[in-house]
């Protein structure tokens, strides 16, 4: 397989995105990668990351490619899970307490730090509007998270999310109550669910 074929394959694996670091990991020089990028019309979307001219710019997917430890949460997770009627004006992610997220904050991203034992609770993947898979908390974890900070959120947004969850054919109430217990909001969650169900 030629270097050009390897680069096309790499971009195809990443849905049209090409990382210089990954290409170099295949033994392809930075100079060759730059020539490939120029010859094929790839556009720079982040430091060391380029996209094919055939794909739409997907901010959530780009952020995932550059920050694999960040999980979409709160308002962004509501959107990815179909539990909100409006697109959030900011991107929300959750990371481990030990993760240095200053670079994310400098980009205007709202960062939530959690204990390591909570980080992967409810972690799944969802597709962005462009069809790319990104890490996100499932519906149950997202409802619990929003309930935990409901005093800081728009009450209408929370009410809409809980109602949509209650109507969803994909809801998993035992999982919801397990997460609520793990995250310390079991009593409040029980009250909301008893009213809605």
Low-confidence stretches: none
- State the end-to-end distance: 58 Å
Largest sheet, order of strands side by side?
Answer: 1-3-2
Fraction of residues in β-strands: 15-25%
Number-wise, the strands total 8
SSE layout:
Elements (H helix, E strand, L loop, with lengths): L2 H11 L3 E3 H6 L4 H10 L3 E4 L2 E3 L7 H8 L4 E2 L1 H7 L11 E5 L5 H5 L3 E5 L1 H4 L3 E5 L5 E5 L1 H10 L6 H13 L5 H10 L3 H11 L1
Parallel strand pairs: 5-6
Antiparallel strand pairs: 1-3, 2-3, 4-5, 7-8
Helix pairs in contact: 5-8, 8-9, 8-10, 10-11
Précis, in short:
With 197 residues, the chain is an alpha+beta fold.
What does it look like?
The chain is an alpha+beta fold. The protein is 48% helix and 16% strand. The chain folds into two domains: 3-55; 60-196, no CATH class. The chain has a three-stranded antiparallel beta sheet. Strands 4-5-6 form a three-stranded mixed beta sheet. α6 links the parallel β5 (92-96) and β6. It starts with a helix and ends with a helix.
């Amino acid at each position: 397989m030629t270097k050009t074929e390897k680069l096309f394959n790499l971009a195809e694996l990443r849905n049209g995105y090409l990382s210089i670091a990954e290409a170099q990991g295949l033994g392809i020089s930075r100079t060759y990668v730059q020539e490939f990028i120029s010859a094929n019309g790839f556009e720079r979307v982040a430091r060391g990351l380029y996209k094919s001219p055939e794909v739409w710019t997907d901010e959530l997917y780009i952020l995932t490619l550059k920050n694999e430890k960040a999980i979409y949460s709160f308002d962004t997770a509501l959107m990815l899970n179909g539990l909100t009627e409006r697109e959030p004006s900011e991107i929300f992610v959750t990371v481990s307490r030990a993760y240095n997220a200053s670079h994310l904050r400098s980009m205007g991203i709202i960062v939530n730090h959690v204990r390591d034992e909570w980080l992967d609770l409810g972690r799944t993947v969802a597709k962005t509007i462009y069809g790319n898979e990104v890490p996100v908390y499932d519906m149950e974890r997202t409802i619990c998270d929003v309930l935990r900070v409901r005093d800081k959120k728009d009450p209408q947004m929370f009410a809409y999310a809980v109602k949509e969850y209650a109507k969803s054919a994909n809801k998993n109430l035992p999982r919801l109550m397990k997460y609520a217990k793990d995250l310390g909001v079991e009593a409040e969650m029980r009250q909301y669910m008893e009213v809605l169900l």
